[in-house]
Design goal:
mainly alpha
């Protein structure tokens, strides 16, 4: 009976940590790759423009996985919703790029296999 409270507290801490880890990972996916001239502070400012209504301190705390931060379920859902369209758009861009490369290679192959007239 005495051990139930510490066990329950440990389970809550593990759950919070997993949620915080997921939220931090989602933030990084939303931020995407850093430009060579962009600092982490710049990335956090860019995220703040994307996540209207989020305070800079909240974004910073989640980005750096501050254990004092409690991430709410609606915030995780908001982050997931932002990641999914970006992922879908990335897939469409990759397919378009692949189709363009195939078309270019087909033209090169046709040109290479055409008989040379002299």
């Amino acid at each position: 009976m005495v051990l139930e409270k510490p066990k329950k507290a440990l389970n809550q801490m593990v759950g919070r940590s997993a949620t915080l880890d997921e939220a931090a990972g989602l933030l990084r996916q939303i931020a995407g790759h850093r430009r060579p001239d962009e600092s982490v502070k710049g990335v956090l400012h860019r995220l703040q423009r994307t996540l209207s209504g989020w305070s800079p301190g909240r974004i910073h705390g989640i980005w750096y996985q501050d254990p004092r931060v409690r991430v709410r379920a609606d915030e995780v859902e908001q982050l997931r919703a932002l990641v999914q369209p970006a992922h879908d758009a990335g897939t469409d861009n990759e397919l378009t790029e692949l189709r363009n490369r195939i078309a270019r290679l087909e033209r090169l192959l046709e040109a290479a296999s055409a008989p040379i007239r002299g």
